[in-house]
Amino acid sequence: MKKVLLSMLFIGAATYAANAQKSEVSKAKNAWALAKFATATTPLDATLKSLGEGLKNTDNAIANEKSKDMPEAWSYRALFASRISFVDSLNVANAVANEKIAEEAITKAKALDTKGGEKENIAEAELTLSNALRNRAIFAYNKKDFRSALGFFNEVTAKNPQDTSTFVNAGVTAKQVENYPEMVRNFNKAIDLGYKDSESLYSEVISTTFEKVKDTVGGTALLEKAVAKYPENPYFVGMQTDLYIKQGNIAKSQEMLTKLIAKDPKNAAYQYAMGDTYYKQALDLQGKRNAIDAKKKKEFDAITVKMTGFIDQALPYYKKAYELDPKMISALENLKIIYAFKNDTPNYEATKKLLDATKK
After folding, report:
1. pLDDT > 80? residue 19
2. HEC profile for the chain?
3. Distances (CA, A) of 63 to 21, 59, 68, 103, 334
4. CB of 271 closer than 8 Å to CB of 315
5. Is pLDDT at 30 greater than 90 in this prediction?
6. Residue 100 CB coordination number (10 Å)
7. How many other C-beta atoms can be found within 10 angstroms of the C-beta atom of residue 74?
8. 270: number of CA atoms within 13 Å, CB side?
9. Looking at the predicted structure, is the pLDDT value of residue 8 above 50?
């Protein structure tokens, strides 16, 4: 009789222990139900205390052999830890520590939840964790801690490689710390993902690649992509024209622009860029002429003739560009210089009057 009695007592004790640990999961569920009612007016310390108590319940649950493999123990652990990581904006170390706890809990919950009963809780924890990291990055940026912000933004994009807006934020932040290769990398990724204002990003990455990164090959490739995608953008067309001119490949530039003008003769940017192919050659000759000894009149006059020829070729394109787009002040400014060079006083005065009117 004693043996049977002892056996029954032993079984009863084991059942009690298992139920006790399962009650920790129930406590966690109850604590989470209360935590969800917390509002923006709830003091941070009170919110963190409530969440911490719920997390402690899951600590107890996963520490016991009887409940450590319950999917709920891990899914609610993920919910509490991710929420702490999200709300604790004052203690970054604590937020990061809870992020790690949540990540581990999510992984464990997914492995144990073979029936999908905790699918919604897991998804909520993942979303909260993503928002926590994003908020941490924005909070660091607003405090002007740009290096930390860049690290956080890069973490977000590593975990969410389709998050276009965060790639843009990372690029902006990288620019703040003059990490130009990182800026270019993040903006390029945003462009590849179809960012709505890719045209502006192209402008940034092209100029930065040429001027800061000093990567002519990479900049040229980006410029070609930009011109192909935005053929009416005067900045891209003009920059490509400049590039060809610097490379001494005037023929290539004029060949490209001739085709573009034939396709769209009313595009002011194309007309202006074609004018530049001649005008900038004239400016280059002017620099050479200025370096000639004043006694070498014959050489001076020969260069002047060439300059005049290029200027005369540029003139109709600038006039056409302004005719097509009266807001193209750069065309007016170049026309004013050309008329002054040619001593064409009537046209000079008329152009100057137009320019002065734009400044009022």
Report:
1. no
2. CHHHHHHHHHHHHHHHHHHHHHHHHHHHHHHHHHHCCCCCCCCHHHHHHHHHHHHHHHHHHHCCCCCCCCHHHHHHHHHHHHHHHHHCCCCHHHHHHHHHHHHHHHHHHHHHCCCCCCHHHHHHHHHHHHHHHHHHHHHHHHCCCHHHHHHHHHHHHHHCCCCHHHHHHHHHHHHHCCCHHHHHHHHHHHHHCCCCCHHHHHHHHHHHHHHCCCCHHHHHHHHHHHHHHCCCCHHHHHHHHHHHHHCCCHHHHHHHHHHHHHHCCCCHHHHHHHHHHHHHHHHHHHHHHHCCCCCCHHHHHHHHHHHHHHHHHHHHHHHHHHHHCCCCHHHHHHHHHHHHHCCCHHHHHHHHHHHHHHCC
3. 9, 6, 6, 18, 79
4. no
5. no
6. 11
7. 29
8. 18
9. no
pLDDT, tens digit, 9 for 90 and up, residues 186-201: 999 999 999 999 999 9
CB-count burial class (<10 Å; 0-12, 13-18, 19+) for 32:
buried
Residue with tokens 């179809």: 194
User: What is the C-alpha separation between 107 and 74, in angstroms, rounded?
Assistant: 9
pLDDT-derived band at 151 (thresholds 50, 70, 90) equals: very high
